[in-house]
Amino acid sequence: MRASDRAYETLREEILEGTLPPGTPLTEVEQSTRLGYSRTPVREALSRLTADGLVAAVSARALVVTEVADADVTALYELREALEVTAARLAATRRDPAVFADLHERFAHAAELVDGGEGGLQRYYDLVTELDAAIDNAVDNSYLEQALRSVRLHSARVRRSARRNPERLRAAASEHLLICQAIRDGDAALAGHATHVHLRLSRANALATVADRDAS
User: Fold this and answer.
1) What is the pLDDT of residues 175-194, one digit of tens each?
2) What's the pTM value of the predicted model, to 2 decimals?
């Protein structure tokens, strides 16, 4: 892996995890020193992060981690609903039942992961990522997958804020369980509806989290 790719992945994960919170200034010199890379790969990494919308220029020389506002969350979930409901419905008609039977079994125990500390939470998020990948593979539509990849990048940033709400995470695990069941059983209508409900509840939680942050 190239140095610029490693720098990009490190910075992206730090932004998504909140280690680099919104408003954090990012300069080539500082990040080069901190990450142990020369300025050229760091410059390339920052350029990719800017294209992703995770970093924005505030002047000719200054970059900062972007904020996540109410309007951003609403727009993001509007797009997610359009894409993910369609993907779930298509996956239910094209899936390998065994793949989603396995995911259904694992999501049946996902609430235990939520209550398992940081390690358990990471395994839960990894399981959600596996479900996303399984849906993409079932749909087998490169255009839809590309659009989903972009929206999921920003969704991960918003979703991680739910770490402070275990009740919401346990509910989300149950919602994912139903999505897996519907796709496993080939029920496109239920898969779409379950995804729709999950996203509406997730959006309400995300907006509440942003409002609490802004009020603090």
Assistant:
1) 999 999 999 999 999 999 99
2) 0.81
Distance (Å, rounded) from C-alpha 62 to C-alpha 169?
Answer: 36
Distance CA 129, CA 176 (A): 11
Measured in whole angstroms, the distance separating CA 100 from the mean position of its chain's CA atoms is 20
What CA–CA distance (Å, rounded) separates 14 from 8? 10
Residue position matching structure tokens 């049946």: 108
> Domains plus CATH for the chain?
3-65 (1.10.10.10), 70-215 (1.20.120.530)
Confidence of residue 211 (pLDDT cuts 50, 70, 90): low
**Closest residue by Cα to residue 176 from 157, 160, 199, 155:** 199
Region 78-98: what's the mean pLDDT?
97
| Rounded percentage of the chain residues whose pLDDT exceeds 70 | 95
Residues 45 and 57: their CA atoms lie apart, in Å, by: 14
Query: How far is CA 16 from each of CA 10, 45, 49, 134, 145, rounded to the nearest angstrom?
Result: 10, 15, 11, 22, 20
Using an 8 Å Cβ cutoff, are 83 and 187 in contact? no
- Residue 55 has φ and ψ, to the nearest 5°, of -135, 145
* Identity of the residue numbered 9: E
Q: How far is 67 from 173, CA to CA, in rounded Å?
A: 27
Can you give the pLDDT at residue 216?
A: 53
